[in-house]
Every structure is written in structure tokens, then in C-alpha cells.
């Protein structure tokens, strides 16, 4: 997760605006200002601990010249359910409440000075079976929320609408049916990454197009290891990354990925059951760059038309499938293809073998796959597949 840097960056910025004494920039000579800036850039950040609520650890990171702004990470993990609501310092950026056997969170558990400006909250490894719809309503700057490893069976409809979330981790819960609308955030257009892996999801309820609610800004969605028998309707989401690994998907045919023209990465590894790739199943994905079909020894496929329409595909992972050896006609279907993994250790790259010179006008260069076994590459020469 990219949680750390992003969170830190924006909080630091916010704090610098609110906490720094106003520097009278207009009266300061430019060389001095430049020197200040260089000093600021040259300074590392310092870490210290500070007094904290009993049992918790408070770690302060200071930034800038004369430690002009600071933020605190508060770790209250593994202390037990009595710890909430815990008072936290005003400049707390990240609060860890993981592994506390918490059964319930509501707005009174997450309230007090310091909570309003919290950017990261870790509630993983608790015993949460439900969350109150208003639990996070006061966390107006929350960007990263970890609810993984709980017993959540449902998500209230508007849980995240008050927060500018960019990362929500709901993996390892007991969710069965999830509404896409539940991920409506106070995002103002920023991308949202949602991890729903390792749940029991058999249905994803599409966002109603007619409703007044804005479309959730989900850019990556991890639905791996759930109970989906078909690709859910995700149309109109600004999705770029989608993982459906480990689901019992049946037939992937035309229309399966309708409305996902912006998708660049798709992972369909280790599908359960007897998955089948039908012709033109990927034709709605003209922007797809990376496709992972690895770990599917029982995958049935119906010829080269399966890969029709994948005009931007650069990387294809076919390791541990029965789709190799591949006919080289695939290279013509996939004009942008750069590399194919055919097994854990064997990777093939597209090469252009020049014909006789000068090349006759109209003749196309011969393309081929050049495969290298990474285990043996040191000892043996490469093979041409
Ligand atoms: C979500 O949490 C799980 C379990 O704690 C972790 O393995 C996974 O990497 C997290 N997902 C993201 C996107 O960080
Ligand atoms: C919030 O949850 C706590 C238990 O964690 C409970 O004691 C309290 O009554 C709840 N407050 C509201 C407003 O529901
Ligand atoms: C999705 O989740 C699985 C299992 O938690 C993990 O292995 C995988 O890396 C995740 N994929 C992405 C794209 O985050």
C-alpha cells in the first residue's frame, strides 16, 4: 500500500499551513528565501517519542527548518477493547487501533481532539461484525482506512461519504454482498483503491446510474478470492486495476468487461472451477496493458479470437496454463505485445527478425518470440519458441 508517503505528504502540507508562524515572504529578500528553501530540502526528518496515553506509543516526526512542523503516529494496538475512545495528540496523523478485540465502532469511539485531522486509521485484526453508518463521519481528513481481518458481514451505504479516502482495506472479512455505492467518498475526484480480497462476495450491486450520488472514484479494485461466478457489472467506474484472482468465474465471453475501457491491468489468476475463455471475451478492453492468466491449468480457450481487441496489451502471463505453446499468430492479434511469461521461469519477448535487405516495400518484418529460461540462461543459450 502506498499509504505512508501520500498520507505524510499531505498532512505535512496541511500542518505547515496551519501551524507555521506566518513568514513575511514579501519583505524577505529573495536570496534568503532561496537559502531557506535549500535548507528545508536538505534537512532530513527527525523521529522522537513523546508522552502518550498509557499503553500507547507516540512517535513524532518533525520536518523542516527548526522542526517547524511535526506529526505524530500513535500506536495503541494490542491493548484490548477498553482502550477506546483513546485521547490522542492534536497533530496525530496516524492511529493504530489494530488487534484490540473491538466489536463495535461508532462515532463516539472515534471522537475527540485530534480525530478530525486523522489521515490514517488502522482497525485491522479486531472483531468488528458491523460498523455504524456514521462511525467515520467526523474523520474529515481520513485518507487511509484499514478494516482488514475483521468479521464484517455488511457495509452501510454511506459510511465513507464524509472522508476523502484514497485507500480502504476490507480484505479478510465475511462480506457477501457489497454495493459499489458504499464507496462514495468525499473524494473530489481523487482515486480510490479498494481491497475486498478474501471475502465471501457473490454479488456486487452496481451503482444506480439514476441516483443523485456521484460515481465512486474507484481506480483499483481487488476482488480476489471471493465467490463471484461472473465478472460483476463495474461499468462507468474509472477502473484501471482489477483483480478477480481465485474466483469461480465460469465463462468469460463478449460483454464481460463492458464499460471498462480505461482498464490497464487485469488479473485472472488461479480461477476456481472450470473457467472458459470465449472468443472476443476481452474485446471491450482496448486499453489493457497487462493481463495475468497464470495458475489456470484447467482453463479452456477457444482459439486466437479470445485475444481479439487487445490492441494495447504489452504483457501476458500464461504460466501454469495449458495455453502454451502459443501459435505465433497471437503476435499478430496482439500488436503491442512485448513479453509473455510461459512458466515461472520462462519469459518470452517479442523480437523482430529482419529479413533480407533492402526490405521490399509492403513486406512486413518477421516477428517471433524469443524465450529465455531464467534458471538456465546463464548456462544455456536462449530458445526460440
Ligand atoms: C490489506 O490488508 C491485508 C491484510 O492485512 C494485506 O495483506 C494487504 O496487502 C492489504 N492491501 C493493500 C492494498 O494494502
Ligand atoms: C458506541 O459504541 C460503544 C461500545 O463500543 C457503546 O458503549 C456506545 O453506547 C455507542 N454509542 C452510540 C452513540 O451508539
Ligand atoms: C489483491 O489481493 C491479493 C490477496 O490479498 C494479493 O495477493 C494481491 O497482490 C492483490 N492485488 C492487488 C493488485 O493489489
Automatic annotation (TrEMBL):
Alphabetical keyword list: Developmental protein, Glycoprotein, Leucine-rich repeat, Repeat, Secreted, Signal
GO biological process: anterior commissure morphogenesis; cholesterol efflux; cholesterol homeostasis; cholesterol metabolic process; ciliary body morphogenesis; corpus callosum morphogenesis; energy homeostasis; hippocampus development
Annotated compartments: Secreted
The keyword Repeat appears for this protein: yes
A GO molecular function held by the record: transforming growth factor beta binding
Position of the signal peptide: 1-46
InterPro entries cross-referenced by the UniProt entry: Dev_Immune_Receptor (IPR050328), Leu-rich_rpt (IPR001611), Leu-rich_rpt_typical-subtyp (IPR003591), LRR_dom_sf (IPR032675)
Pfam families documented for this protein: LRR_8
Domain of life: Eukaryota
GO cellular component: extracellular matrix; extracellular space
Alphabetized SUPFAM superfamilies for the sequence: L domain-like
UniProt subunit comment: Interacts with FZD4 (via FZ domain); competes with WNT2B for binding to FZD4, inhibiting Wnt signaling and repressing peripheral eye development. Interacts with TGFB1; the interaction contributes to regulation of the hair cycle. Interacts with netrin. Interacts with CCN2.
Protein name as it appears in the record: Tsukushi
Organism: Callithrix jacchus (White-tufted-ear marmoset)
Gene from which this protein is expressed: TSKU
